[in-house]
Design goal:
The chain is mostly beta strands and 278 residues long. Among the domains are: 65 residues, Immunoglobulins (Immunoglobulin-like); 85 residues, Immunoglobulins (Immunoglobulin-like). Helices cover 13% and strands 40% of the residues. It contains two helices and 22 strands. The strands form seven sheets. Strands 3, 4, 6, 7 and 8 form a five-stranded antiparallel β-sheet that branches. Strands 20-18-19-21-22 form a five-stranded mixed β-sheet, with no helix packed on it. The protein is elongated and about 115 Å long. It comes from Takifugu bimaculatus. Keywords: Membrane, Transmembrane, Transmembrane helix. This is Ig-like domain-containing protein. InterPro entries: Ig-like_dom, Ig-like_dom_sf, Ig-like_fold, Ig_sub, Ig_sub2.
Length: 278
């Protein structure tokens, strides 16, 4: 096989089958136990693709018998593809625990791996997976995984966060302060709301009072129609006078609806005098 071991995509590959025979042997080529169209001693692949890869073998045959060759593997060679990196414990890692940084990449031939920490020139590990036991806060930082083979190389990185006891206390303190502040704002809002809300005023329809004066030659009677809870309502009054212009009236005022006179009322009786100036 030329070149030996495989070839990169779109390159050419030449397979050769040879057998010493007399009369000269005839050849047949097979891939994955399927016979190919070529009957020559050489099988030529002009532009290698992934579909061309696999196990090949040939047979040589004449009138006296046949022989089968061994298998030869045709592989597609390529540089490492974008490596995938991850941490065994997502998020923050607790101190004094074990954490593993993982790295993987598809490559042919198989890739080699190296782990580096930011700011350091020497690799931390030459394994695919980098394990740190009893991790400390100083282990926090950016880590890079370098992947390479004979066809090329790539690098991918991740950030490791190790939560120290001091960091935990700071976080707990911040959360506690935030909760207390939120509670204070809530109580303040409730208090301001109570102060701002006015109690609804009970609306009452204004009462109308009808005052009627009936005249007689010597006196006038004043009659009032009103609600018993007159002290709590606004009154509108209308007065009707039926008088002779020459009469002088003395009026007695009394409510139409069940008004009970008290001793105090007896002492505070008022008299009204209406004079006609004409």
């Amino acid at each position: 096989m030329s070149p030996p071991g495989g070839a990169v995509q779109n390159s050419s590959v030449n397979l050769t089958c040879h057998s010493d025979a007399n009369p000269e042997a005839k050849y047949a080529w097979f891939r994955a136990n399927q016979m190919l169209v070529s009957e020559e001693s050489q099988l030529f692949i002009k532009s290698l693709q992934a579909s061309d890869c696999g196990e090949y073998y040939c047979t040589a045959e004449n009138q006296f018998g046949s022989k089968t060759s061994g298998y030869v593997s045709v592989e597609l060679l390529y540089a490492p593809r974008h490596p995938s990196v991850s941490v065994s414990s997502p998020g923050e890692v607790e101190e004094d625990t074990t954490v593993t940084l993982r790295c993987s990449s598809d490559a042919n031939p198989a890739a080699n791996y190296s782990w580096y920490k930011e700011g350091e020139n020497s690799p931390k590990s030459s394994e695919q997976n980098f394990t740190i036991t009893h991790v400390r806060a100083e282990d926090s930082g950016h880590y890079s995984c370098r992947v390479w083979n004979t066809r090329g190389h790539l690098t991918s990185s991740l950030h490791l966060v190790v939560a120290s006891d001091v960091t935990k206390l700071i976080v707990v303190g911040i959360v506690s302060v935030a909760m207390v502040f939120s509670l204070f704002l809530t109580l303040l809002w409730i208090r301001m709301k109570k102060m701002c809300v006015k109690k609804p005023t009970k609306c009452r329809k204004p009462l109308q009072t009808r005052v009627q004066i009936k005249s007689r030659p010597t006196a006038a009677t004043l009659e009032l129609d009103q609600d018993q809870d007159q002290d709590q309502a606004l009154h509108y009054a209308s007065i009707h006078l039926h008088l002779d212009q020459n009469d002088v009236l003395y009026s007695n005022i009394r409510p139409v609806h069940g008004y009970r006179q008290t001793d105090e009322d007896e002492d505070s009786t008022e008299y009204t005098c209406v004079m006609d100036q004409s």
